[in-house]
Amino acid sequence: MSDSSAPLPSGPDSTRVDRWLWAVRLTKTRADAAQACRGGHVRVNDRPAKPATAVTVGDQVRVRLHGTTRVVDVSHVIAKRVGAPVAVRCYVDRTPAQPPQATAPVIRRDRGAGRPTKRDRRQLDRLRTEFPPQA
Question: Which residues, including other chains, have CB under 8 Å from residue 92's CB and lie 6 or more apart?
């Protein structure tokens, strides 16, 4: 029997948002989840959430972690941490796709090489016109 057809663990009707974020593995520790809530990085149904804010099935949780914003809908409430294959089934990820990043060559000089020579500046100018910075 595969993990996708295994029944989800029974859980309460609602639980604290910091506990749920930790249980479904969106944060590494419960303390990280509570800190994100206190820092204003977690919203439940578009309202700022404290660590003790209750989440129920159908709620939308928006959390900003490590420079990215994750938007998830709660599909199952659990209070204990579970394995990753089960945890992913407890929410529906509605995070918008990130725009593709343009990769331009990074211009680096050796440390201690001094000021660029006239020839170096010409080469840098040529690179900058071929790959203009993206706004």
Answer: 72, 73, 75
Q: What is the per-residue pLDDT for 115?
A: 87
H helices within 24-117, ranges in order? 30-38, 84-87
Judge contact between 55 and 14, C-beta under 8 A.
yes
Calculate Rg over the CA atoms of the chain. Answer: 23
d(CA 121, CA 134): 21
Q: Is residue 75 within 8 Å of 55, Cβ to Cβ? A: no
Rounded distance, CA 71 to CA 68, Å? 10
Query: CA torsion 9→10→16→19, rounded to 10°?
Result: -20
Q: For residues 11 and 115, give the distance between their C-alpha atoms in angstroms, rounded to a whole number.
A: 64
Output the pTM of the full model: 0.70
Ranges of residues in the chain with a pLDDT under 70 are: 1-5, 101-107, 133-135
